[in-house]
Amino acid sequence: MQTYRDQPHRDHPVAAEEGGISGADWMTVDWSQLNRGDIDVFKRRLYAHLKHRLARSAEEASLHDWYTALAHTTRDLLVETWTDSQRAAASADAKRVCYLSLEFLIGRSLESNLLAVGMMDICHAALAEMGLDFGAIREQEPEAALGNGGLGRLAACFVDSLATLGIPGEGYGIHYHHGMFRQRIEDGRQVEVPENWLTYGNPWEFKRPDVCYPVRYGGRVEMVDDGEGHQSFVWIHAEEVLAIANDLPVPGYGGFGASSIRLWSARASQEFDLQDFNRGDYIGSVMAAMESESLSKVLYPDDSTEQGKVLRFRQEYFFVAASVADILHQFRAQSGADWSLLPEKVAIQLNDTHPTIAIPELMRLLIDEQGLGWDEAWEISRGVFAYTNHTLLPEALECWPVALFERLLPRHLQIIYEINRRFLDQVRAQVPDDADLVRRVSLIDENGGRRVRMAHLAVVGSHCVNGVARIHTDLMKSGLFADFHRLYPDKIVNRTNGITPRRWLNQANRPLARLISRHVDEDWPVNLDLLRALLPLAEDAGFAEEFRRAKTANKERFTSFSGRTLGVWIDPGSLFDVQVKRIHEYKRQLLNVLHVITRYNRLRHGLTAGMVPRTVIFAGKAAPGYAAAKMIIRLIHAVAGVVNGDPRTRDWLRVVFVPNYNVSSAEVIIPAADLSEQISTAGTEASGTGNMKLALNGALTIGTRDGANIEIAEEVGEENLFFFGLTAEEVAACRSGGYDPMAVMHANPELAEVLNMIRGGYFSPGEPEAFRPLVDALLYGGDHYLLLADYAAYVATQGLVDAAWQDAAGWTRSAITTVARMGKFSADLTVLDYARDIWGVKATAPVMQDLGPYR
Ligand SMILES: *Cc1c(COP(=O)(O)O)cnc(C)c1O
Asked: Does residue 848 register a pLDDT over 80?
């Protein structure tokens, strides 16, 4: 085991750069401002945890031991506020928000928690005096990657905002034993490796074995008649699993509020094990226990595609049943058993359709267990639930087979049928003689194997449905949910996504955050509109120089990271052109590659006029079963091999793929970006949040008029970003109007050359047909995402980017203006909009004073 004395940088704090940014970071701290007493207390607590919790001396301690001790020291600091705010909410009897999400993409917590409680500088000072390097210790923390991408990261950002705004409430999810897989690249191909984030325990969480609910599956439903004409239903279940709570505290910024995420893990239920024991089947009973505990074993790694697996269905009901039971338990303890008050005390937000079974589950509990009548239960239920839609892609819409419900949740199926019967009666009354409408809106899809349409259930069972960017909400109203929009004209609303400025600027980009804090009110992390004070500085040459220096520091950090970990050495002076997100055909990383090859060809042919040196950076995971996405990763590596190895072009063009994209690598890549690639086919990206993170860090956007790009452009000004390509309406017209990709190729010799190179094996000489399917899908497969239709506009716009980059002062002015105008995309404002109109809850944090109209 390595001890901290073995660390070569022990006596050389400057070498802290090795582990990240911390070196440069703490060197700028004004130590004289720190309280000697605080530093000493911090050190004593750290030593105490090392000794009493880990039974290690400072001489023996490994970096990981120091991480654990530091995490516990930090946790101590936030526990007071956490328990205080829980008590305060309970005694105020305030309404609370329960954010149900199958995913929480949290990332690391050490740095964000230290910043939230205001102890970062004290911590750095204490560690420096002890000869320890914060950057290296921070790297010891495994990622809490309990999510795939944007949807899970949104949930984490929202809980951060709940905490900071002092809104009572918390997130509910699953305590996956294995979160998102680790992506390794072997021979240019993605290989998935399980990630063991809990191997050394999780110092942030509190296990609550006493907070435990049974979750049942299977069996049958019996009708019981009480002899006086009143019938009720009893679910005789066949299996039972226990859900145990694990609580992750989430501190609000500035140490005022706090929230938490309650994550359920599965435990075998003894009731059933014992029967097997009594029959003498010891091994059988242990195997059965293992099987039920597999419920919380692993996160499904599919983003935007629905796999329809039985375990996934069980997972959804598992976390929903535990969460609803917990919500009702707390309501009862607080407010008694007058269930009609439930909507005044609780708002439940369904993050996508994954938790939609919560609707029939609440109905079941109210009717079967509390004895309420249908109408009363339905009114309560609709008052409580609201649903967020995240995608219009048909392959992502959940539809569970009726047969699966029959087998695992028979009582819920009955309730869904009854919801549907009453709903369709109402539709027939509202719009007579339209059998096709009834068929379209039914909760049951009768085409080829009956299925429950979870999105329809969510819409019918919620009082409010929201999209996540204006264009997405408009498309919901005109497309996917057009019938529902006609039936319930006020139900569908927009709530454009947001990001937390704490993690995505204050923490991830310390050089820029420190610069901003020198020039604008230091409350900007809780009131992002304050960044508008930077606008006049966009014209200030001195400020522009400092802004550029901050960007350069981030680019150098990325360069040393990529050099050290990937062995790729790049020029921090080149334009960093960044596309980081899940690999998906609709996100069109392949279009980016077509541009890279075009640029490479121009360079080979000596056509360098107007061109600037670029480093094109990719990162992202493909779903393990998504062949096309995996082939795109392989193509990126193949192109990188050729381009980076060509002495004629290597000073002008480099391609880097950063493996294992996650929150931590996003925190290194995004602050270093000059150009943000947001190039989805218009009408396919619901909102995007990567686009917001990159713009907030001073990258200019090249993008389509899709998702939140449109609203970003409205804020920062179209003159400060690069739009190109078909609009959503043009995409629809193109697809229905005889689009001919082959003709597009023949009309564009540059494009034809690029496609022929890929198809002909230029990048895969040992295996000439390796990438042929990608090109064939474009030329012969209909090019569903219209890469070829947008190619010429994309390449031309990339030329405008080069020209803009050559005007360094103009580029910096646009970047500063972009940062200054991103206030609208703070998750705080998004969450306040949900709070005011959808949840009917109040924020209590003092920071509210600064938020003007939202106060
Ligand atoms: C923000 C984020 C995403 C979402 O990125 P999009 O560009 O909006 O798709 C995905 N993964 C991680 C790790 C993120 O931080």
From this structure: no
- 261-275, 563-577, 678-692, 724-738: least confidently modelled range: 261-275
Indicate whether residue 666 lines ligand 1 (CB < 6 A).
Answer: yes
Residue 524 within any structural domain of the chain: yes
Catalytically active residues, by annotation:
390, 581-582, 587, 689, 693
Place of tokens 């605080």: 38
* Rounded Cα distance, 832 and 824, in Å: 12
CB 171 within 8 A of CB 248: no
Residue 108 phi, psi (nearest 5):
-85, 160
Phi first, then psi: what are they for 753, rounded to 5°?
-60, -45
The CATH number of residue 617's host domain is: 3.40.50.2000
Report the pLDDT averaged over residues 500-508. Answer: 98
Q: Is 690 in the pocket of ligand 1 (CB under 6 A)?
A: yes
Statement: residue 853 has pLDDT above 50: no
* pLDDT on residue 487: 97
CB atoms within 10 A of CB 73: 25
List, in order, residues 6 or more apart from 518 with CB less than 8 Å away: none
Q: Quote the CA–CA distance of 734 and 730 in Å, as a whole number.
A: 6
In whole angstroms, give the CA distance from residue 232 to residue 223: 6
Q: Answer yes or no: is 508 within a domain.
A: yes
581 in contact with ligand 1, CB cutoff 6 A: yes
Q: Is there a domain that residue 335 lies in?
A: no
User: Which residues form the domain of 562?
Assistant: 503-725+793-825
- Predicted pLDDT of residue 32: 63
Q: What is d(CA 81, CA 257) in angstroms, rounded to the nearest whole number?
A: 7
How would you label 296-332 residue by residue, b for 16+ Cβ within 10 Å and e otherwise? Answer: bbbbbbbbbbbeeeeebbbbbbbbbbbbbbbbbeebe
DSSP state letter for 178: B
User: What's the angle, vertex CA 102, arms to CA 97 and CA 108, rounded to 5?
Assistant: 90
pLDDT of residue 21: 34
Instruction: Report helix angle 541-566 to 510-519, nearest 10.
Output: 160
Distance 329 CA to ligand 1 centre (A): 35
Look at the chain and report how many structural domains it folds into.
Answer: 1
**Closest residue CA from atom 7 of ligand 1:** 690
Q: Contact 71/110 with Cβ under 8 angstroms?
A: yes
For residues 621-634, give the mean pLDDT.
97
- Ligand 1 near 689 CB (within 6 A): yes
State the Cα–Cα distance between residues 557 and 384, nearest whole angstrom.
47
User: Is 4 a residue whose pLDDT tops 60?
Assistant: no
Q: Is the pLDDT of residue 55 over 50?
A: yes
Separation of 694 CA from ligand 1 center, angstroms?
Answer: 10
Task: Specify burial of residue 210 (Cβ count, 10 A radius: 0-12, 13-18, 19+).
Answer: exposed
Q: Is the pLDDT of residue 637 over 60?
A: yes
Kindly report the average pLDDT of the chain as a whole number: 92
Q: What share of the chain is helix, strand, coil (3-state, %, to 5)?
A: 55, 15, 30
**Cross-strand partners of 400:** 452
Asked if 408 contacts 314 with a C-beta cutoff of 8 angstroms, the reply is yes
For 165, 491, 554, 619, 688, the CA distances from 498, given in Å and listed in that order, are: 14, 21, 23, 22, 9
Residue nearest to atom 8 of ligand 1 (CA): 688
- At residue 271 the predicted structure's pLDDT band, cuts being 50, 70 and 90, is low
Asked whether residue 166 is domain-assigned, the answer is no
Residue 509 pLDDT > 50: yes
